[in-house]
Amino acid sequence: MTTDKYPAFKILMVDDELPWLRSLGMTLEGPGGFENLMQCDDSRQVMKLLAQHDVGVVLLDLTMPHLGGEELLQLIKRDFPATQVIILSGMNQLETAVGCMRQGAFDYFVKTVEEDRLLDGVRRAVRMVELQRENHEIRRRLLAPKLEHPEIFSEIITRDPRMISVFTYLESIAASRHPLLILGESGVGKELIARVAHRLAQPGGLLVSVNVAGLDDNVFADTLFGHRKGAFTGAERDRRGMIEQATGGTLFLDEIGDLSAASQVKLLRLLQEGEYYPLGSDTPQHIQARVICATHQDLAAAVAAGNFRNDLYYRLHAHQVRIPPLRERREDIALLLEHFLELAAAELDKSVPTPPRELSALLGSYSFPGNIRELQTMVQDAVSRHRGGVLSMQTFVERTGTTREQLILATDNPFTDLHELPTLSVATELLVDAALLRARDNQSLAARLLGISQPALSKRLKLRRQPDDKGV
């Protein structure tokens, strides 16, 4: 069951002191940004609540009547081992803390600890549960690779096995709130993959896309975080940033490999802390959107060269897909050609033209540095020039820079280089002669080479001799 609350599972707070429970809840919900909270002031009800609800993290008071924290910890780890338990105590007792950790507690905090330290501990526990669930889902999907939502991928034209693997992986991480990094050359369809990932998550919010290439640090901050009235000269009113607009949905940051060093720091803090400050504001805001990033650059090489932060790279590395270029997906070219012909014809209000058979061979031998986008523009240009009949090869020859000799090699058509084409009857006779020559006048073998029956070949040869017989 999906939920728009964060986290997707419940955080259960257990303490017999109601004022402390209310205070803890306000801390988690306010500065922490956690929404899916549940309280319990009777330790005897904890196991029942865990059985009835999807609880991922328990914050457990150590000293309570009826069932103490240590006893409850043992029961929870026995019956719900995947649930992470954080022990809260009124006293700093080292021996007790060590004992709780040995019994499986995720962490141990004194109630008087600084608010930031406690929230950091809860965030780490939440991330641990999320990663455990994501890993379980990935394993399940790998064992059952059939797509559960094939309709969501209908926009992507492919039968390439690596693309199908990408689809399966995207389904397995659909519920994850961790960043997704999409790698691939320009024109392979990274934004299309981002749209698919957004739809798979079934969020209540929008997909908000931002191309960050070329944005300086100030514009980047203002675009993402927004600003308050008076934050700078010309800021006459509050402006919502893209993060706020993506609340409940997905924030897609394209070309993040081009971010400046200062902007990389801001993005790292956003992903690491889950919070940001609108320009001109001292009040932190919490991001309530999934972040998807994309780049055509080799980020590992950029890290090695010192152009991209190592910590940001590994923060983005939680979930990653690489989209293969079109030259590595040769089987998709014919499918995409047909698809783009239909799109272009519909847009230009023309009938779908018939492509020449040589076209597939030509495109299959081309490297497509511009990938799918380049193929689409080729088709659009060719269809716009089309006036009827078979689609002209001219546009494709010009755009691919194919020479006449390369076209002959690509199409492997012996008639392509002829200045004058033979008539069909003459070409047929020449083909029969060539077959007989190769078969050394063995008609059975020649017939097999021509793909016809031996009686059919004999009949054709008899008809060929008839004029001579009549003249004798």
How would you characterize the overall build of this protein?
It is a single chain. The protein is α/β, with parallel strands linked by helices and 472 residues long. The protein has 4 domains: 10-138, Rossmann fold; 145-322, Rossmann fold; 327-411, Orthogonal Bundle (Helicase, Ruva Protein, domain 3), CATH 1.10.8.60; 424-471. It is 48% helix and 12% strand. It has 20 helices and 14 strands. It has helices at residues 18-29, 46-52, 69-79, 94-102, 115-143, 161-172, 190-201, 217-225, 242-245, 261-273, 299-304, 310-316, 331-347, 357-364, 371-385, 394-400, 404-411, 424-438, 443-450, 454-471; strands spanning 10-14, 37-40, 55-61, 84-89, 107-110, 180-183, 207-211, 226-227, 239-240, 250-254, 275-276, 285-286, 290-295, 319-322. The strands form 4 sheets. The protein has a 5-stranded parallel beta sheet with strand order 2-1-3-4-5, sandwiched between helices. Strands 7-10-13-6-14 form a 5-stranded parallel beta sheet. Strands 8-9 form a two-stranded antiparallel sheet. Strand 3, helix 3 (69-79) and strand 4 (84-89) form a beta-alpha-beta unit. Helix 15 packs antiparallel against helix 16 and helix 18 (424-438) packs across helix 19 (443-450). The radius of gyration is 33 Å and the shape is elongated. The relative contact order is 0.07.
Compact summary:
The protein has 472 residues and is an alpha/beta fold.
